[in-house]
Amino acid sequence: MSEAHLLELDNISKYYGNIIALKGVSTYVNAGEVTCVLGDNGAGKSTFIKILAGVHQQSEGTITMNGEQVTFDSPRDALGNGIATVYQDLAMVPLMSVWRNFFLGSEPTKSIGPVKWIDKPRAKRIAKEEMTKMGIDIRDTEQPVGTLSGGERQSVAIARAGYFGAQVLILDEPTSALGVKQSGVVLKRIVEARNQGLAVIFITHNPRHAYPVGNRFLILNRGQSMGSFAKEEISVDELTQLMAGGAELEALEHELEAAGTIRHEDLTTE
């Protein structure tokens, strides 16, 4: 590609001995865009995240940032290059306050000579301001983060990543354990992050969540890319078909119809 993207993966493969976890995967993401990576369980999404997050190194292929080839030897290395990952388990301490979870060891400090202490008023103000920017209304930053809903906790993690200088934000299945309303909250936060100029990589198995917020879609199936598409190149129904494996889905439809348990129109999406 002639144009330099903020983050680009070219022909990425990962092998564990004879096991192929990823094979020939290519995609990119730019500032102010959302690239959605879709796939069912076992599609290779976790391996994809771990390579970008610096947990594992790819066996083949290249990663470039702003046109320069990079290698991430560790999660700290990836973070130092501006890639922040928000995992499903969120790495939060439920009994600690919202503002303490926002900083988690990186709190602003005051000092007199060799003596340092946490600047609590400033930390609370920054946490509240940053979350307000993301459209998160937390009345009291002293409340334990465990009292927040799942969607609100995801929102705090997204705001935290943006504050600490992330250029690329990787979200690992942020809506998977949430209900409809809370999923909507997280999708709004993804749009806010995009609008603030972050490049977002949204990992999900739900095309109905991905399509409204995504600019580009990478579909993985058993470690292989089924294609990378701009939004105008694919519909949500085509996305679902590719993700599920069109032939497998059709075979299932025929089996269910033959068994008389379901009608064809029940399986077609609106």
In short:
This protein is α/β, with parallel strands linked by helices and 270 residues long. It has ten helices and twelve strands.
Walk me through this protein's architecture:
This protein has helices spanning 45-52, 75-80, 98-103, 120-133, 150-163, 180-195, 207-213, 236-244, 246-259, 264-267, and strands spanning 7-16, 19-29, 34-38, 60-65, 68-70, 83-86, 109-112, 115-118, 168-172, 199-204, 216-221, 224-230. It has 2 domains: 7-97 and 151-234, P-loop containing nucleotide triphosphate hydrolases (Rossmann fold, 3-Layer(aba) Sandwich); 245-270, no CATH class. The two termini are 36 Å apart. A hairpin with a 2-residue loop joins strand 11 (216-221) and strand 12 (224-230). Helix 4 (120-133) packs across helix 5 and helix 5 runs parallel beside helix 6 (180-195). It is 36% helix and 26% strand. The longest helix is centred in the C-terminal third of the chain and has 16 residues, at 180-195. The model has no long low-confidence stretch (mean pLDDT 86). It is of the alpha/beta class and 270 residues long. It is globular and about 75 Å long.
